[in-house]
Amino acid sequence: MDFTAEELWAFLPRGYLLTIVIEIPILLLGLSSGHPPGRRLIAGCWLTACTYPIVVLVLPETIGGRWGYIAYVAAAETFAPVAECLLFRAAFPIPVCRAAAIRDMTAIVAANVASFVTGLWIDT
Q: What parts of the chain have a pLDDT lower than 50?
């Protein structure tokens, strides 16, 4: 985790765009039917916009710099989906059906896993 702040800031917009390109299709298909397509699209951009700066700018400097890459990945890949699930639930109505709420959370987690795995693949 030897990135300068300048390198992290330079990566932020490119990484954000790549992340939403990967996550939006998953959310469009995966979120429950109670959410109109526009909300699904907004969620794909907004959720990542809320968590991505922390994952890219804050956690590498705090967790990664102190405890290394594995700790950073564990923190980032736990923080992002949990925070996004909480933000989504706070912003949008709770579905009447429990299965729809579970589907929403599963879609958000799946989108995060897909972008993480893609990032690993690109980085290797």
A: none
By the 8 A CB rule, do 31 and 106 touch?
Answer: no
- Alpha carbon 73 to chain centroid, angstroms: 13
Length of the chain: 124
- pTM of the predicted protein model: 0.92
φ and ψ of 31, to 5 deg: -65, 150
For residue 6, what is the DSSP state?
A: H
pLDDT of residue 1: 64
Q: Is the separation of the CB atoms in 88 and 104 below 8 Å?
A: yes
- Percent helix / strand / coil, the chain, rounded to 5: 85, 0, 15
Would you state the structure tokens that stand for residue 91, as one six-digit string?
A: 């912003």
